[in-house]
Queue: 2 jobs
Job 1
Amino acid sequence: MRAMSGAIDPTLDDSAQTAQRLRVSEIFHSLQGEARDVGWPTVFVRLTGCPLRCVWCDTEYAFHGGQWYSIDDIVENAANYRTRHVCVTGGEPLAQKRCLDLLVRLCDAGYAVSLETSGALDVSGVDPRVSKVMDLKAPGSGEQARNLWSNLAVLTPQDQVKFVLADRADYEWACAALREHAIAQRCEVLFSPVHGKLAPRELAEWILADRLPVRMQVQLHKYLWGEEPGH
Ligand code: SF4
C-alpha cells in the first residue's frame, strides 16, 4: 500500500461512511504499461478483490487484503501525484459497486480516466467519460465461460477490447470472436501475449500473416520492472 492517508469524512454518519468506501490494495504512480495510453505517467488505483481466477493472473496479491478508504481520500491521494491520467484497476474493480461512484468523481475532477476490467461484469453503468479497457478471456485463461458478451453492445470507439493470449489455440479463438462479433468495427482491439508464455514475435507474425485489424501490445511495465508489485 502506498501513499494512503486513510482519512474519512467525520461529518458523515457510519452508514454514509460505509456507503462511500472502497477496499483498495494500492495507489501508485507509474507509467501506463498497456493499451492506448501506454507510456503516460499515470496514477493507478488498484481495488481489492476479483471473482475470477485466470491461470496467468499477475495481480493475485490484490485478491485479498487491502484497506478501506473513502472515495474522498482516494481522490485526494491521486491528486498528490499531479498527473492527468488515472487508471482504476484490480483485481476486478467492478466487483465493488462503489467503483462506479469513484469513476464519476475522478472524471468530475478532470482526469483522463481509464478502467481495466475483466469483461465478466456488466459495464453498462460506467460513466461514459471513462475509457474502458475490457478483457475477453480466451480458453487458456481458464475463465472463458465468464465472458459477458452483452458488454460488447455498450462499447464505443473510446473503449478497447483486450485479448491476452497464451498460445496458438487462444489466438485462433480470438480471431473467431473478432469475426463473429465484429469487435474491430466497434472499437480498438488489443492482442497481448501472456508474458513469458507466448513469444511476442510469434504473435506479431501471426497478426501480420492474417492481416488482422488489431493492435499488438506488450506490457511495458514488465520490461521496465518485471513482476514487482506497484508498477
Ligand atoms: S480478471 Fe484480472 S485480476 Fe481477476 S484473475 Fe483474471 S487477470 Fe487476475
Note: The mean pLDDT is 92.
Job 2
Amino acid sequence: MSLESKIKEKKATIGVIGMGYVGLPLAVEFAANGYSTFGIDVDEQKVKNVNNGHNYIEDIPNDRFEKCWKAGKIKASTDYEGIKDLDIIYICVPTPFTENKEPDVTYIINAADGIAKGLRKGQLIILKSTTFPDTTEGIVMPILEKTGLRVGQDYYLAFSPERIDPGNKKFSTANTPVVVGGVTKKCTELACLVNAQIIEKVVPVSNPRIAEMSKLLENIFRSVNIALVNELAQLCDRMGGIDMWEVIHAASTKPFGFMPFYPGPGIGGHCILIDPYYLSWKARGYDFHTNFIELAAEVNENMPHYVYSMIVEALAHKGTPLKKAKILILGASFKKDVDDIRHSPSLMVMQIMLQKGFEHLMYNDPHVPEVEVLNKKFTSQLLTKELLEAVDCVFIGTDHSRYDMNMIVKHAPLVVDTRNATKHVTAGREKIFVLGSGKSL
Ligand SMILES: NC(=O)c1ccc[n+]([C@@H]2O[C@H](COP(=O)([O-])OP(=O)(O)OC[C@H]3O[C@@H](n4cnc5c(N)ncnc54)[C@H](O)[C@@H]3O)[C@@H](O)[C@H]2O)c1
C-alpha cells in the first residue's frame, strides 16, 4: 500500500518525537481523527502520563484526550525501537539557546539519530521544531542519508513549522493554517496531504528553507513590534501625561496598515525570545548583522529591569524600606492563562529583586503551583484579601483571566501593573501604576 493511500485511508501510523506543548496536541489531533499515534519522548513522566491516560497540556480538553486514549489511538514510549513501524514521523523537540545565546540543535540531532536507526523505505519525516534555515537539508538530511536511503526516492523529508498559540481559545492546531516545504516535490505533496487530514488550510512553499525562514520572520516580526511599543511605553513614562495604552487603542482604529502590539514586562516562552537569535547566529556566518533582531532583543530584555525600577520607585515614593518590603507577584507564567514558565519575565523580575536583596517575595499563579528562582523554592500563595492587605506592593506580571482586578486593587496598598490589567478598575486608581501610562509617581 502506498503512503498516499495509507494517509487517505487513515491507515498510516503517526509518530511524534517530543510530546510537549507542540507534540501532544498534534498527536491528539491525529488520534481524534482516527489515526494510530505513537509518541516518543525522553521524559519518562510524559510517557507514563500518555500511557496512563493522563492529559498534561491545559489546552487539550480532557474528554478529547480520554476518548483517544480509550480507543487505543495514542500510546508512547521512551525508546526509538518502534520507529520502523511508523509511517510518518513528526519531530517536535526543543530548540533552546546556549548560555551565550547560540542555537542548540542537539535535540534535533538526537531525534534524527534515533530515526536513522530505524529508517525504512516509504517513511515521511516532518521537522516542526523552530530553527534556522538549512537545518532540514543541512543537518537532518545528512544524518538520514547515512543509512544509504535517498530522499525523494526511498524516504521523504519536509519542514513544516508549528504555529500553536497556547492559551488561545480561537485558534488551535486544526484551524491554524500551516506552511509546508519539502526537500523534493513529492516530499512537499506527501507532507501537505498528511497535514491536510487534521488542518483546514495547508500552504505549500518551494523548499524547506522558505518554510524555516517564514517561521523566523513571524516570530521576529512579533519581537520587533513588541520592542517598539516597549520603547514607546518607556518614552510615555518619561514624558508624562501620555498613556501608551490609549495611544495604541487610538492607532488601532485605523482599518489598514496598523496592527496593535502591547507593552509588557518582557518577552518569555520558548519562541519569541529565542528564535530571533537562531537567525542572527546564522547570519553572522555570512558576515551579516541582523540589526533589527539585536535592537529588539536589547529593548525587550531590558524590560524586567525597567519594571524592577518601577517597583523600587513606587515603594520609595511611599517611603517603604526596600529590602523589608513585602512584594506579591501575580502571575508566574510568561503569558496569560498558560502554565508555561520558560523565560518568564515575572520570574526574571523576581530574580532581579532577589539579587538586589529583597527578602520578602511571594507569588500567586492559578496555573503554576511552585517555582524555583535562584535556587529558592516558592509556592503559589492563596490570593486572599488578607494577603493583599499584608503586602506593601502587588506587581502584576501576568494578567490571567481568573484574576479579579477589582478585588486586588481594593485590598492592595500599591499596584504596579505591567499589562494594563486594571484598566476597568475605577476605584482606587491613585494606588495603581501602569507601565507606559505616563503617570508620574
Ligand atoms: N510551545 C509553543 O508554543 C511553540 C509554538 C511554535 C513552535 N514551537 C517550537 O516547537 C518545538 C517544541 O517546543 P515545545 O514547546 O513543544 O517544547 P517542549 O519542551 O514542551 O516539548 C519538547 C519535548 O521533547 C522531548 N525531547 C527532548 N529531546 C528528545 C529526544 N531526543 N527524543 C525524544 N523526545 C525528546 C522533551 O522531553 C519534551 O517533552 C520548539 O522548537 C519550539 O520552538 C513551540
Note: The radius of gyration is 24 Å.
